[in-house]
Amino acid sequence: MKKIGLTTTVPVEVLIAAGYTPVDLNNLFITSTDYLKYIDIAERDGFPKSLCAWIKGIYGACIENDIKEIVGVIEGDCSNTKALIEVLQLKGIKVYPFSFSHSHKRQDIENEIRKFMDIFNVSLEEVEVVRERLNEIRELSKGIDELTYVHNKANGFENHLYQVSLSDFNGDLGAFEADLKKVIDDIKKRKPINKKLRLGYIGVPPMTGDIYKFVENLNAHFVYNEVQREFAFPRADKALTIFEQYYDYTYPYDTEFRIMELKKQIEDRKLDAIIHYTQAFCHRAVEDIVLKQKLDIPILNIEGDKLNILDARTKLRLEAFLDMLLDLKESKK
Q1: Which domains are assigned to the chain?
Q2: Is 0.85 topped by the overall pTM?
Q3: β-sheet bridge partners, residue 274
C-alpha cells in the first residue's frame, strides 16, 4: 500500500478504502529519537524560528522520510498549514486539501467528505466497511480510557499514547489491534494508581511527554486527555454514518462545541483541575482566555516550544499549582 502523510486527523476511512497507508506526520516527528533534526531541516529551508515547532517538524518529517503525497487540513486545524503545503508542493509533493467546515453544519461536513471520497474515487459503501473495521479498534481504546479514569490502572501517558496513535493506527491495523489487546490485558492485572489529584489535560498533544510522569511524582494523575481522546472517536459507535462521526468530532470546530464536551468530562471524571497545554506561536493559545471564563475549574496554562522535556520554569509552575490544589483539598476535609 502507498503511504500518504497527514498533517492532522482526517477521515482515514477514505484513504484506507482507496488503498493507502496513512502516516500521521506529527507522530513520525515527535516519536523520533532525533526529533530536532526535523526542525533543523525546516529552518535550513527557510522556515522562521518564530513559527510553531510542530509545523517545522511535520515539514522535516515529510522531507526526510520521502513522503510523496499528503493530506493537508486547510480549515479546522493549524492556521499555518496553508503556507506549509505551498512549500511542500514546491518540493514536488502531491497535496490533497481537506477542510473541516468552520460552519459546523452537518451538510457542509458531508459535502467536504463527499468531495474527499471523489478525489480518491471510493464509494460511501466502501468507506463504511472500513469505518466499521476501524471502530472495532477504537472500541479497544475506550477500554484503555476506562482503565484510566474508572479503574485508575492505566497511567496518563498510556492513555495519551494509545489514543493519539489512532490518528493513523500506527500504519498497521492488525498489529495495532493486537498491541492494544495485550496492553489492556497487562494493565488489568495492576493495582490501582493511588493519587490524590485527578487532572485533565486539554489542548494539543504535548511536545513534552514527560509531563505525565512529572505530575505522578507530585501526587497527581492525568485521567483525561482531551484531544487525544477525540482522535480516538469515542462516540463513533453512536454515529450512523461517517458524516455523523466527523460532525461529532470536537477538535476542528468552534470553542463552544468543544466546551460542551469538556464540561461533561470534567463532571464524569471528577476532575480537580486542568492543565491546558499550548504551543508557542500557535493561535490556539488565545483559546485559554475563553476556557478560563467558561469552565468552572482551576486551570493552569503551560506553553511548549522545541524541547521534548519540561523546562525548569514549567516544572516550578506545575509544582506550585499542584501544591496549592493539594492544600485546598486537605482544607476542605
Answers
A1: 2-119 (3.40.50.11890), 124-332 (3.40.50.11900)
A2: yes
A3: 200, 299
